[in-house]
Amino acid sequence: MTPRFKAIADHTLLVTFADEISDEACGAVPALDADLAAQAAGGMIEPVPAMINLPVSFDPLVTDHDAMETHVRGCLGAPITIQSAGVTRRVQVCYEDPFSSDLGLFHPPKA
Q1: CB–CB of 8/30 below 8 Å?
Q2: Which one of 3, 36, 41, 82 has the lowest number of neighbouring Cβ atoms within 10 Å?
Q3: Nearest to 65 by CA among 17, 11, 16
């Protein structure tokens, strides 16, 4: 898979791995994110992983799109495989008063 690079505004480089969600793209994004965390470039502020791409924000007073792309390409040389079994989250919900007074605004009670 060959990533595509695109300048976004003056402070972000968008690295896109695919046009559609796939296991390969979903594996490449966190792998690059981990590599960037291990080999942070000067001026890099934050990579923000998504499903098929990784926007990398940076300080434009310290670096530029070309330098950031060169750094990211260097990180792509040694792919990392990240396996994740996922995480179960339990969200407690209460639908009774007094915690649900706003629910009636969206779904009025049936008569």
Answers
A1: no
A2: 82
A3: 11
pLDDT tens for 72-85 read 999 986 655 556 67
Neighbours of 98 (CB within 10 A): 6
Kindly report which listed range (10-14, 22-26, 33-37, 96-100) carries the lowest average pLDDT score: 96-100
For residues 76 and 87, give the distance between their C-alpha atoms in angstroms, rounded to a whole number. Answer: 27
What's the DSSP call for residue 46?
A: E
Query: CA dist 106 to 1, 22, 102, 111, Å?
Result: 45, 35, 8, 15
Q: Which domains does the chain have, with CATH numbers?
A: 1-111 (3.30.1360.40)
